[in-house]
Design goal:
Chain lengths: 624, 235
């Protein structure tokens, strides 16, 4: 705003609170006097302002005294420099009253400008502009000094007052909340835990335009910013890099709701300054000062889903990685989660698209505005990360508990250690949702096994996990005794330790089952044309020999299974011709009860005393 | 019994099968199987079939370019022309597939083709479940520019049943004014047939790839809002 022009046209009035506003000092000591001198103008000052400053000089609060002293010093300079004219008397009730009276009386004669930090008074003065009974071609300008010390007009947009109100409310709450003294957590600000979802705030807020690439947005803390590059997009809106290097999320119209705004205001009231957590830093407004998004720190790296959860991508992105890197990565993520949990923040929609990985130690949680904050739920979620007791429930309709969250945490760790494999994916299982609900965790622990662990590297990886880790998954998925985040950190530190000591394999994708060194022996594969020597568990060999079964290496077992499956799927040999086999599939009714995969080698791991029925079954099949 | 296996079939088929199975093991991503059942009868000759080929190419390329969809979507193609439907492309990972080149000739055995497509989807699902791979319910895209020359009753019943049970999503598409949308509707009780705008196969396949990408990033069982079908369908 051009102060020269304002001074030339308007009579300037300044409220007590602006005189005492530290960020206004620069304006009051430099810009304004310069403009007043050059226009030979003065500031009008109600005498009550001086009284108020005098009163504040005696305040019990040191900060107030200091501010009042500065204000008094400036006012004296203005008087001495003859750029200030007092009016009214000490008999006036309040400054507010004086100002309103003066403005009402003089508004038809002069253009008037009022600078204040007080929203309510500003609004009242501004309303005079719209008083229908008095017709005037003069204008009242209501101004304030913003946080950057700049003179700016008050914005009486509905949302604006909404936001001010919200910020006040939530700060109020946080002050009331007494955190019990504990030396280590002295500084930790915990959010209140919500009891039930706040309802009736889903209505969209009016928004006239959604800022696009290369357009300007405005913020309170960082001033105006430009959207300089689109870096992502999601269900709720687009993600941009801004001209100050931070990241900005601009919502779609349908996602701009009162609920969103309220949640963000609380988050801003509880600033989290922790690297790797892309916590909201400020609200974002469009050119009409309507709320459209928020600013957050920049995250680096690729989402877990796109960098770790698919083998070829993992090998491409991190070619040197070993098992210990995966464990370290899980720990790095857990550390962020624990930080949030300590503050009563539940992530809710923990999911591999919202965790960005730079390397095994630097990770970033994004989409923090979907977190569950106090009575504002996390309205989204995915099946794999949803605890059985809340499967199928509408996520926006209830508040998640820490127990629900711990299920998600266990799933995440599982899918990092068995890169990308969902814990409930299994042979001949139901839908993921059904499997989770029924607690059908397919991997074996000791005597317990379903024989349904998925084929391929997964059961090998599982067999190489330390018992403690397996047990932790087992408890979390099967027995609903979920570990909390801190406990998971302990479990993984133990895993890290066993690898570092060489007790367990550091291979990313081990090629076979774990056989303890003292139980390892070799056998010769008895398949025709194979005859290779292979490692085998001593008890298993003994058992096979006792039962009069053939000893078959893993590769040959695989081949046999494959052939059986192929036959099962594509019918008998007569029906398949070499060239166009793919073109002549017949539907020759697969018998769903005939399971071609009744053998699960992983059952052998710890279960040697009683041959399982699966094994028996398998062996019987090969007794020709 | 063992000998029986050894004589089972020509070796390279087993190798191919084995490769495809290895890929199922190694890739933990939940799969979206998509079967394109495409009319390649004589009337598609000329510009239609060449536009269709372009569309398929675009489709497969678009999916390969998306990290997640590339590891999630699996595509098979059945063509129908001549007397019998033909499997042009069978399910395996997209990375291992050559883009098929379709030619047009012959009749319109739609019933047999849909049956083949459904059989292939069923087998693929069986493969997933026996190896312990999660999957989304499959999609079947059915395109024709005419009317069937064989009996479609059984195939239509089967696809309708699956669709009603939400075990299959059918996308019925008519090409040109001679396409019999009423017949197409018999396969698809949940999604009404759409007539392609002109020969805008590319726009359709672009839309399809976007839809596949959207689904591959969703979770199983969740209902996904597909992108708006703009630019390819007639109203
Ligand atoms: N702070 C950030 N820094 C860098 N990239 C980000 C950041 N926040 C989000 N992204 C990118 O944008 C994508 C979508 O963001 P997200 O918050 O998940 O959107 P939505 O909630 O709308 O789905 C993320 O997967 C990520 O790749």
């Amino acid at each position: 705003m051009n102060i020269q022009k304002i001074v030339a046209k308007y009579k300037i009035f300044i409220d007590t609170c602006t005189w005492m506003f530290p960020q206004a000092v620069h304006f009051l000591e430099n810009e304004l006097p310069r403009a007043l001198y050059s226009q030979r103008e003065t500031v009008k000052l109600p005498v009550r302002v001086i009284d108020e400053v005098n009163k504040h000089l005696k305040s019990e609060i040191k900060e107030t005294r200091y501010k009042a002293r500065k204000a008094a010093e400036m006012i004296k300079l203005y008087i001495r420099g003859k750029i200030l004219e007092g009016f009214g008397s000490s008999a006036d009730n309040f400054v507010d009253q004086t100002i309103l009276t003066v403005f009402t009386n003089y508004r038809t004669k002069y253009h008037l400008a009022f600078i204040t930090q007080d929203r309510k008074l500003a609004q009242d003065v501004d309303n005079l502009n719209r008083q229908k009974s008095v017709r005037s071609n003069k204008h009242i300008l209501v101004l304030t000094i913003n946080q950057f010390g700049q003179l700016s007009p008050w914005n009486f947009n509905l949302q604006e007052s909404n936001i001010q109100e919200l910020m006040k409310k939530s700060s109020h709450k946080s002050e009331n909340k007494k955190i019990p003294f504990s030396p280590s957590r002295e500084k930790m600000k915990k959010l209140p835990l919500g009891k039930k979802v706040k309802v009736g705030i889903d209505h969209p807020l009016p928004v006239l335009e959604i800022p696009q690439l290369n357009q300007l947005i405005s913020t309170r803390r960082f001033g105006p910013l430009r959207l300089i590059e689109k870096v992502g997009s999601g269900g709720e809106g687009d993600i941009y890099l801004t001209s100050n290097g931070q990241i900005c999320k601009i919502y779609k119209k349908t996602s701009i709701t009162q609920a969103k705004l309220e949640k963000l205001c609380i988050m801003l009231k509880y600033p989290i300054d922790k690297s790797g957590i892309c916590w909201p830093q400020d609200l974002v407004f469009n050119s009409r000062q309507q709320f459209v998004g928020y600013i957050m720190p920049k995250a680096v790296g690729k989402p877990l889903q796109r960098s770790i959860f698919v083998k070829p991508l993992l090998q491409k992105n991190f070619p040197y990685w070993k098992r210990s890197h995966l464990v370290q990565l899980a720990l790095a993520i857990l550390e962020k989660i624990q930080y949030l949990h300590e503050r009563n923040i539940i992530i809710g929609d923990l999911n591999p698209l919202n965790i960005l990985i730079k390397n095994e130690r630097e990770v970033f949680l994004v989409d923090t505005d979907s977190f569950q904050i106090a009575e504002y739920p996390c309205p989204v979620g995915t099946v794999n990360y949803t605890a059985p007791e809340i499967q199928g429930k509408k996520f926006g309709g209830f508040l998640r508990s820490f127990q629900h969250e711990y299920f998600a945490v266990a799933t995440l760790i599982f899918m990092i250690l068995l890169p990308g494999k969902a814990p409930f994916a299994q042979q001949d299982g139901g839908s993921p949702q059904e499997n989770i609900k029924n607690g059908n965790f397919p991997y074996p622990l000791g005597q317990n096994t379903t024989g349904k662990a998925p084929d391929g590297p997964w059961r090998f990886i599982w067999s190489h996990l330390p018992f403690k880790t397996k047990e932790a998954f087992y408890r979390s998925f099967k027995e609903q005794e979920r570990l909390n985040t801190m406990e998971w950190i302990q479990v993984l530190k133990h895993y890290e330790y066993t690898i570092s000591k060489g007790y367990l394999s550091d291979e990313l994708f081990p090629q076979g089952h774990k056989i303890p060194a003292e139980k390892r022996t070799t056998a010769i594969c008895q398949e025709p044309y194979c005859g290779k020597e292979f490692d085998i568990h001593i008890d298993r060999k003994k058992q096979m020999v006792e039962n009069g079964n053939k000893l078959i290496c893993y590769k040959c077992q695989e081949k046999i299974q494959e052939e059986k499956l192929m036959k099962n799927l594509y019918g008998t040999e007569n029906e398949i011709t070499s060239k166009d086999q793919m073109g002549s599939f017949r539907s020759n009714g697969i018998d769903p009860h005939q399971d071609p995969f009744l053998f699960d080698p992983s059952q052998m791991a710890g279960n040697t005393n009683q041959p399982s029925s699966f094994l028996q079954n398998f062996l019987n099949r090969f007794k020709s | 019994m063992m000998d029986h296996f050894n004589a089972f079939r020509p070796k390279h088929d087993l190798e191919e099968f084995s490769l495809s199975r290895q890929e199922l093991f190694d890739n933990p991503t939940a799969r979206v199987p998509i079967c394109l059942v495409l009319d390649c009868s004589g009337s598609m000759w000329g510009e239609p079939i060449s536009e269709l080929n372009k569309g398929i190419q675009l489709f497969m390329k678009a999916i390969r370019q998306d990290d997640i969809a590339a590891h999630s979507a699996e595509i098979a193609v059945v063509s129908f022309g001549d007397e019998e439907p033909k499997c042009e492309l069978n399910f395996t990972s997209i990375g291992n597939q050559a883009i098929p080149f379709l030619t047009a000739s012959g009749r319109t055995p739609m019933g047999a083709a849909v049956k083949m497509g459904l059989d292939m989807l069923e087998k693929r699902k069986k493969m997933y479940s026996t190896t312990g791979v999660d999957y989304y319910q499959p999609w079947l895209v059915l395109m024709t520019d005419g009317a069937p020359t064989d009996d479609i009753t059984l195939a239509a019943e089967r696809s309708s049943e699956l669709a009603n049970a939400k075990k299959l999503t059918v996308f019925p598409i008519g090409v040109g004014s001679a396409a019999d949308l009423q017949t197409l509707a018999k396969f698809s009780p949940r999604r009404t047939p759409v007539r392609l705008k002109g020969l805008n196969f590319s726009a359709f396949f672009e839309w399809l790839s976007k839809s596949v990408i959207a689904v591959s990033q969703s979770t199983i069982g969740e209902s996904v809002k597909l992108p708006e079908a703009k630019g390819w369908g007639e109203l």
